Every structure is written in C-alpha cells, then in structure tokens.
Recover the amino acids of this structure.
C-alpha cells in the first residue's frame, strides 16, 4: 500500500502547474476481523482500504479533497486536482496556514507477527462452553505523506485488539487484550480475571447508597475518563484561550503530584508525522507531577501563537496518550483499597461542568463492593459526577505499576490509530449521585 501510494504521488505531481504545491496524505489498513457469538466464530472478514487526501495550496489559499482508493486512482485523483484548482480562486487566504519549510523524510515499517487464526484459537479455548460475544481486529495500519517539494514519510504498524463480554444472570462482564505483538500470556491473564469476575457476579447484588466512596478505578475506567478530558485538556489553543477542561491547572490548581502524562508517539499506534508533514517527537511531556508542562501544538496554533509546533493534529487531541505508572502492584489493589468499590469500567461519559473539569457517567460491567480487602458482591449500575481535579487530583492516592494499552475502537471510516496507555487509580473519593 505504501509503495502504491508513492507511485501515485510521483504520477500526480507531474500534473501540477508552476505556482501550485500539492500535499498528499494516506490513511489505510489491512485488517482481519473475527466476530464471535455464543462462544464460537460467527463471522470472519478482511478489509483492505485506503483514503487519499489531496491538499492543493496556491498563494496562501488551500482546499482539500478526500478520495477512497480503489480503481483508476490516477485518473480520479487528477480529476480531483482539477476540481481543487477551479475552487481555489474563490477561497480566501488563510492567515494561519503553516507548512513545512524543511524537508524531513522518514520511513518506519513494523509489520509485526499477528495471526488472527492463532489469536482466535486461544480465545475460543478460553470461552469454551460460554455464551461469549466479542470482536478481534488485527493487522497493519498505514499512514503516508508526500509533498510536491519532495518530502516523503511512510509509516506502517501492526496491532491487535480483542475484546469480549458475557451476560449471565442479568449481569455482564467484559475484558480485552491489545498490543503491538501477540502475547499469549496477556490473554491468559485477562481470561483468568474474566472467569474470576464471572464467579463474583453470581453473588447477590449489594444495594448502594449515593455518596462519596473510596474506589479503585481499573485501567479501562481511567482510560474512559482520559478520553473525555482529551477533547480540550491538552491542546495549545485551549490553554491559550482558557476554555480547556483542565484550565484550572494553568491557574495554579494542579492535579495530583503522582500524575505524569505524556503524548508518547513511539509507544502508541499513530504515525510520527501529521497531515502536513511536520514530524512528531517521540514524546511530549504534557503534565509532570500534576502540573502542566507543554501542550500539544498544531501547525495552525504554531502560526497563530508564534510558538514551535510539535506535530499535533488540527484538533490538538492526543493520539498516543501515556500515563506513567505508580508503585501499587496490581495484585495488591484489594488490600490497598480496604473498604470501597472496585470499578471495572465507565461509560456514557460527558461533561457536567466543562470549565471545572467535572465529568458524569455510569459504572459499567463488573463493579463490586469491597470490604476488608475482599470482594463481597456486585453493585448496581450507578451514576457518578466528579471532577478531574478530585479523581486525578486531591483524591488520587496511588497508581498501579503497569500501564495498560487501550486502543480506540472506532472504525466507522477506518481503524482509529488513537490509544491510551494508563494504569489503574486508587482514589479516596468517587462521588456517586444516584
């Protein structure tokens, strides 16, 4: 796919006029999908697709056209180029347009060793006899960039994501496994936890009163919380204009000193360059010891605020968020929690007070009441409403020692390359409202 992209770029650039600059971007995948139902394979398939973005630039004006590659690609791309050429005279100049002036080529191909058949066989053995449902996605994702000035950037990285759930006795439990390479030990550990949760869910449900509860947020729950905060919490534009959900941290109210957060491109699934060809550093320190350090800076923000960029997307959302682990071993969480709640996951999250960093949502899947370091039984679905400055600030007591990878599962227009790698969090208070 990357070689095909390069040949198309070479041919398309010959159609440019002297004053035109054309930037080409590619996002593609070659994915195996296996869907499971009733503990068996229900559907298998393979998707190979790629989308080409053409961005034509003339005298500070620019316009884009997306093209799904398939057949007669050069003819269709040439037609798209002509359409952009006709459109540009009616487009105003963009004062924040910022394009690379130095050529930085790169190529990284990490195809990995992922066998959907082997992964599927291991999973089916673990859920034998159960009415389990799930989805396996694995294979490489491709990103590429070509500039008519000569720059080329090529990227390929393979990954897998397997998640599954089971509904028994009116309650559900769900777990997953993900990584850049297949590790049977990871699935074995998750499967052991899955079966332990099933047994615990068989106990009678323990009623729970609204209020503030000591709680352990498992990595999946922390990932869900960070996913909401990522919309406006880490970008330069939000920091400068004061509308970010973590703006209070810029005004002198830090998060917990235990919290250090990076945008760690080399450890995630996304490309090390943006849609305009700017290189992304391997790591950007966003927060250290709970205090903001450096925001994600897109090319537009770099021009608008006259600062160096760091390859962030136009939206300045993290692509490969990484939260450093702490000192709490995962097998000692129950003892450290003592009395409180084990929250496996959260869903339906949204802001209840954006400016205060307050988020509301529901507990999900296997959530338990814990007393004396022992799980007593499942709790009903509860709504929480709490602030990031509490959950990740004053109430945060400890973080587990192993950050876990949580890929974004969205695939409406292709597999997402966004991910969060984070530990679990022990908090002194989680505010449940009903």
């Amino acid at each position: 796919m990357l070689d095909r992209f390069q040949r198309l770029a070479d041919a398309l650039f010959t159609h440019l006029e002297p004053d035109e600059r054309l930037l080409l971007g590619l996002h593609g995948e070659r994915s195996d999908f296996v869907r499971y139902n009733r503990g068996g394979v229900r559907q298998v398939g393979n998707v190979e697709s790629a989308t080409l973005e053409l961005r034509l630039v003339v005298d500070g004006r620019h316009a884009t056209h997306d093209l799904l590659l398939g057949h007669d690609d050069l003819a269709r791309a040439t037609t798209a180029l002509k359409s952009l050429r006709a459109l540009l005279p009616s487009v105003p100049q963009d004062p924040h347009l910022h394009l690379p002036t130095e050529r930085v080529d790169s190529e990284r191909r990490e195809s990995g060793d992922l066998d959907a058949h082997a992964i599927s066989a291991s999973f089916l053995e673990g859920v034998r006899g159960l009415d389990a449902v799930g989805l396996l996605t694995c294979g490489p994702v491709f990103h590429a960039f070509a500039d008519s000035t000569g720059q080329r950037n090529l990227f390929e990285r393979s990954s897998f994501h397997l998640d599954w759930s089971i509904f028994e006795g009116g309650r559900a439990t769900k777990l997953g496994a993900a990584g850049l390479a297949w590790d049977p030990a990871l699935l074995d550990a998750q499967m052991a936890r899955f079966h332990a949760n099933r047994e615990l869910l068989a106990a009678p449900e323990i009623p729970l009163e609204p209020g503030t509860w000591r709680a352990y947020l498992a990595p999946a729950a922390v990932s869900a919380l960070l996913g909401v905060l990522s919309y406006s919490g880490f970008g330069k534009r939000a920091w400068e204009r004061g509308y970010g959900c973590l703006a209070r941290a810029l005004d002198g109210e830090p998060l917990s000193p235990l919290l250090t957060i990076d945008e760690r491109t080399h450890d995630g699934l996304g490309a090390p360059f943006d849609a305009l060809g700017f290189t992304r550093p391997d790591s950007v320190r966003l927060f250290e010891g709970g205090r903001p350090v450096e925001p994600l800076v897109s090319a537009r923000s770099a021009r608008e605020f006259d600062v160096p960029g760091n390859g962030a997307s136009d939206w300045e959302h993290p692509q490969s968020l990484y939260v450093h682990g702490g000192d709490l071993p995962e097998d000692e969480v129950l003892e450290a929690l003592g009395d409180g709640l084990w929250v496996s996951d959260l869903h339906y999250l949204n802001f209840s007070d954006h400016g205060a960093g307050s988020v509301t949502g529901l507990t999900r899947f296997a959530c338990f009441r814990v007393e004396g370091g022992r799980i007593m039984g499942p709790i009903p679905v509860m709504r929480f409403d709490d602030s990031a400055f509490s959950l990740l600030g004053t109430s945060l007591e400890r973080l587990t020692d192993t950050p876990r990878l949580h890929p974004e599962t969205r695939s409406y227009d292709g597999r997402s390359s966004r991910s969060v790698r984070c530990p679990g969090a022990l908090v002194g208070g989680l505010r449940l409202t009903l």
